[in-house]
Amino acid sequence: MMEPYTVLVVDDVKTNLMIMGQSLKGLYQILEASSGAQCLKLARSEPQPDLILLDVVMPDLDGYEVCRALKSDPATAEIPIIFVTGKDSDEDEQYGLELGAVDYITKPIRPAIVRARVCAHIQLKQQRDRLQSMAMHDQLTGLYNRHFLIECASQRLARVARHRNPMTLVLMDVDHFKRVNDNYGHHVGDKVLIEVARLLSTNMRREDVVARLGGEEFVMLMDCSLDNAAAKVEHLRHLLEALEPDGIKVTGSFGLVEASPYNADFSHLLVLADDGVYRAKTQGRNCVVCHRAEAPALRGKVSTD
């Protein structure tokens, strides 16, 4: 069951908080803040609110300052803000909307108006979230797609270059997948890819990224060293070998390469990982090859080039 959307109500007057909270009761999960500072804290906490009803006149930070701070922070910039205020001139409303608010409600608070405006903007957010999800995810497997992968990889590789955080790129190719399509049909091939994707996503850590690169190729970005990643991928290889979706034997060839401050170009890393996959296939498939100059081989079917 989908979690209800969360609305953060911000006002330094308790009566106003109560009225707005009652207006939305039963429709959304309600958070309350009585100051601008408290609003900023809650907006930056997990889980984040999906929409903020924000008073303008408050004693510490006024609503305009809070809105400006939220919109300047990438972590909170996309949260819709509706001003609820006694400042009712056209200039005030124009200023609030120019700051990035999506709507402007004037006091005294009218519950029906608050409810209608919030419902409308939550529906818009739902539509926007769906479109964003479709843009980031592969439609067959539900994994992240190539577009999101490239964007995410560039951010993570920037951290590698700046802070020397460990990161290993894993490329996996399903062995003999053309035979699956030829022998069983593309509809069965699609089922196989869905099951492989489910296995990959459920057996990776939350902070790792799993994406479908295209066809039967999958990429994983793992925030760990090459040795740690190789051990985990070897376990993944065994799980894949035992999967047998629709009774079909499925194996994968894996190529791994570790990023470094001197090797933090995604395209180049992908080429090196692809070379690892090629070597895995020449070694009989269903194995893991790590791209590095000198490193001890792991036990099992993991090798290094």
Automatic annotation (TrEMBL):
SMART domains: GGDEF, REC
Sequence ranges assigned to domain GGDEF in this UniProt record: 165-293
EC number(s) reported in the record: 2.7.7.65
The protein's enzyme class: transferase
UniProt-listed Pfam families: GGDEF, Response_reg
GO BP of this protein: cell adhesion involved in single-species biofilm formation; negative regulation of bacterial-type flagellum-dependent cell motility; phosphorelay signal transduction system
Record key words, sorted: Phosphoprotein
Gene Ontology cellular component terms for the protein in this record: plasma membrane
Transmembrane segments: none
UniProt cross-references to PROSITE patterns, sorted A to Z: GGDEF, RESPONSE_REGULATORY
InterPro entries assigned: CheY-like_superfamily, Diguanylate_Cyclase, GGDEF_dom, Nucleotide_cyclase, Rev_trsase/Diguanyl_cyclase, Sig_transdc_resp-reg_receiver
Domain Response regulatory: 6-122
Cofactor requirements of the protein: Mg(2+)
GO molecular function (one): diguanylate cyclase activity
Positions of modified residues (4-aspartylphosphate): 55
Reaction equations catalysed: 2 GTP = 3',3'-c-di-GMP + 2 diphosphate
NCBIfam families recorded: GGDEF
Protein name as annotated: diguanylate cyclase
Organism annotation: Shewanella amazonensis (strain ATCC BAA-1098 / SB2B)
